[in-house]
Design goal:
The chain is built from eight helices and 17 strands. It is an alpha+beta fold and about 300 residues long. The strands form six sheets. Strands 1, 2, 3, 5, 8 and 9 form a six-stranded mixed sheet that branches. Strands 13-16-17 form a three-stranded antiparallel sheet, with no helix packed on it. A two-stranded antiparallel ribbon has the order 4-12. Strand 6 and strand 7 (about 150-155) form a beta hairpin. Helix 1 crosses helix 3 (about 45-55).
């Protein structure tokens, strides 16, 4: 019985490594397995034994501390707001150090992900030494285990972005949001402050202006024993961060599309008209976070 319990817990550990944490066996599943294999043990005795063994394998947590300017945490959250009286789904990009900033986008695609970083680095005029993420699809395409360690295959767009701005990166363990606790805490604050009192805007540009002003206001609040603001702390952190490149990263994605007989192209489930002389020809489409250009 002890071997069955330890073997099952070992399988759970392997599933954690393989991103299968939702498929792990619970105590009731292990108890059912023991009974099916012909052993008898009372449920109370089993659960006492199970808790004792499982307690030995519980994870311990260490508070993560970083030097000023060493690491910036990034995350997305979803929200619903009214744009020109129409309820829209939007995605909010959050950056958190001692200083926080948020940007609103129509989606979480690669162009929005890259544009958010470009806007944040431009805003602070610096690039943090390291960025911390969860395993978001715009950065990670695959996670696999090799020699009992998780390895990640990164997206081309993420590699280009991190190479251009020359920042290091690290990813949280699977289902371990506590490893980027600062930005997780800011998600709750941001959602409440941005949209609890006003969720109606004429355009997403207006929504971003409101978001920008609220973020600036928060960064000007004094906190801590020294009564310094987040803006004050950012100025101190800038001393050890590298300068932001003068020319921003090019966030557009390029593709070829054929013009149909109706003088339109289909792009991301939308139809866009082009001059009729291009019917039957291919055109170049360059998509950005908020616009597309057709050549």
């Amino acid at each position: 019985i002890m071997k069955i319990i330890t073997d099952c817990l070992k399988e759970n550990y392997e599933k954690d490594l393989n991103h299968q944490h939702k498929q792990k066996m619970k105590g009731s599943d292990i108890y059912e397995k023991i009974i099916k294999e012909g052993y008898y043990i009372s449920s109370s005795t089993f659960y006492n034994t199970f808790k004792k063994i499982n307690r030995q394998k519980r994870e311990a947590f260490i508070r993560i501390e970083h030097l000023p300017g060493e690491e910036c945490q990034f995350d997305w959250y979803d929200a619903k707001i009214y744009i020109n009286n129409e309820l829209k789904d939007v995605s909010v990009a959050l950056f958190t150090m001692s200083y926080q900033m948020a940007f609103i986008y129509p989606s979480k695609n690669m162009q929005c992900f890259q544009d958010a970083h470009t806007q944040f680095f431009k805003h602070i005029g610096r690039v943090p030494k390291k960025m911390r993420y969860d395993n978001l699809t715009t950065a990670v395409t695959k996670i696999y285990v090799e020699n009992h360690k998780r390895q990640r295959v990164l997206t081309e767009g993420f590699i280009q972005l991190s190479t251009y701005y020359n920042f290091q990166y690290t990813f949280c363990n699977i289902a371990k949001g506590n490893e980027k606790g600062k930005v997780e805490k800011y998600v709750s604050f941001s959602r409440r402050k941005l949209f609890s009192q006003n969720d109606k805007f004429d355009s997403i540009e207006e929504a971003n202006k409101v978001c920008y002003n609220i973020s600036l206001g928060k960064n000007k609040l004094s906190k801590g024993e020294n009564m310094k603001t987040s803006s004050d702390l950012l100025e101190e952190e800038k001393r050890i961060m590298r300068l932001c490149p003068y020319n921003p990263f090019e966030c557009g994605d390029i593709s070829k599309n054929k013009v149909n007989k109706y003088s339109c192209i289909s792009f991301l489930n939308n139809q866009y008209s082009v001059p009729e002389e291009f019917v039957g020809s291919f055109v170049i489409v360059k998509s950005y976070a908020f616009q597309i250009k057709i050549y």
